[in-house]
Design brief:
Blueprint: E1 7-9, H1 22-30, H2 37-47, E2 101-105, E3 112-114, E4 124-126, E5 129-130, H3 154-158, E6 159-162, H4 166-174, E7 184-186, H5 197-200, H6 202-212, E8 217-221, H7 230-238, E9 242-247, H8 253-259, H9 266-278, E10 283-290, H10 299-309, E11 314-318, H11 325-336, H12 341-351, H13 370-385, H14 405-414
Parallel strand pairs: 1-2, 2-6, 4-7, 7-8, 8-9, 9-10, 10-11
Antiparallel strand pairs: 3-4, 5-6
Helix pairs in contact: 4-6, 6-7, 9-10, 10-13
Length: 417
């Protein structure tokens, strides 16, 4: 989108035990463990996650340039919160100053996140970052930021954590005796190719390890930065070890700038699909999320454009609004599209059994009701029409643990004595 990114890198002594996957959030919600502070305190202790101090966080009442969320709602686990209100003092201000992105070092002891969800096609994932600077207002991963003591609002897109040793830890986990190989997913909680990866290149380091181990991997991203790693992806594709999916939410540039302000334009994502396909890397498209009354009319056009670019399969997800995202999305909708906000929210409730979210397995991704069924039928028809209804599996049989380079270096050093 051409925004200038100011990354203020700061190293803090935050220590997180392990990553919390959005699927775990849904499990807690279904179990009713998010309603009070006490049950979650037990969950936090069970996962070994220290609780950081909970500062008072005022709600930001207006949007900021280059950011998706219009508010910074309190962490749902804080006992004390502050509430802002308009008193007229800021009425003359045209816009608030931009927020810088800050980075904190995440020293997790493991990097593979496991899940048992029946709704998704993978059981393990690696996320080099927590939080995402793309700032997509609808992002289902936002509530996971509350586990770090941050707000799922503006904090999610401005206060990032990164795992500098992600490649070394991943290699150590892949070398464990008895490890059973199945595809690892990149891009399940936050985008592995978000802007800061241009500098840190953590995703590239992960792919380097997976390439050496002949380990299959799937990638979901909104960024054309994935093309940077073609030198790794092409050889992996030749061994049927990689599949890349570009998420395209809308073809409308104005809507995209408001909804996902720091992600690549739709045109650039479609170009990335084309370049991946030409290089022999299997590429697909994810039309997600489909938001009733806002972008769902574009479904067929998105699939057609992706097929023309060279996509081989497609998927879609209906808008999900778990936890704080309800408030974040509703506020964003009223600020940017006040004329249709009520209509959009009514349609969302129609697909979610009268609520703004439904975490039940089997229907949280596609919804229920007439409107949701119609969207599913439209997708099935369009995917078949444009040849996007097939997907080949990846090869897990090639996995092999390579020699440990560090052991070789240690032996060479010992030979000097």
């Amino acid at each position: 989108m051409g925004h200038r990114l100011d990354h203020c890198i700061s190293y803090q002594d935050d220590r997180f035990a392990r990553e919390i996957d959005p699927q775990e959030l849904d499990a807690f919600e279904r179990a009713g463990m998010m309603e009070t502070h006490q049950p979650f305190a037990l969950v936090r202790q069970g996962l070994g996650i220290p609780r950081p101090p909970a500062p008072m966080r005022p709600v930001v009442p207006t949007s900021r340039k280059g950011r998706g969320a219009t508010i910074n709602p309190p962490n749902r686990f804080d006992k004390h919160v502050s509430v802002s209100f308009e008193d007229g003092w800021n009425a003359a201000e045209d816009e608030l100053p931009p927020l810088q992105t800050t980075l904190s070092r995440d020293v997790s002891r493991s990097v593979i996140s496991w899940n048992q969800s029946p709704d998704i096609g993978f059981d393990r994932a690696v996320n080099p970052y927590r939080g995402c600077e793309h700032g997509c207002v609808y992002c289902y991963a936002r509530p996971s930021h509350a586990y770090l003591g941050y707000s799922p609002g503006l904090d999610f897109e401005t206060k990032l954590t990164f795992k500098p040793d992600v490649a070394e830890i991943l290699e150590r986990e892949l070398r464990k005796p008895g490890y059973v190989t199945k595809p690892i997913a990149l891009g399940t909680n936050t985008d592995p190719y978000q802007p800061i990866d241009r500098t840190l290149k953590l995703t590239r380091s992960i792919l380097t390890v997976l390439d050496r181990f002949n380990h299959p991997v799937t990638i979901v991203t909104k960024s054309a930065l994935v093309l940077r790693d073609l030198d790794i992806l092409v050889p992996m594709a030749q061994r049927n070890l990689v599949r890349v999916c570009l998420s395209v939410t809308t073809l409308d540039p104005a809507l995209a700038r408001r909804m996902e302000p720091r992600a690549a334009s739709a045109a650039r994502r479609l170009q990335a699909i084309s370049e991946l396909a030409k290089a022999g890397v299997p590429a697909g498209v994810m039309a997600a999320p489909m938001i009733p009354g806002l972008n769902d009319a574009e479904l067929e056009k998105i699939l057609q454009s992706a097929a023309t670019a060279g996509a081989r399969w497609a998927g879609y997800v209906l808008l999900r609004l778990p936890h704080e995202i309800k408030q974040i999305f509703e506020d964003w909708l009223h600020q940017h599209y006040p004329d249709r906000a009520r209509h959009v929210l009514d349609l969302v409730r129609e697909t979610r059994a009268g609520a703004l979210n439904d975490a039940k397995f089997g229907q949280r991704f596609n919804g229920t009701g007439v409107y949701a069924d119609l969207l599913a039928s439209r997708f099935t028809r369009a995917a078949r029409q444009f040849g996007l209804d097939g997907r080949d599996g990846l090869d897990s049989s090639l996995f092999a643990v390579p020699p440990d380079l560090r052991m070789g270096m240690a032996e060479a050093q010992m030979s000097l004595f």
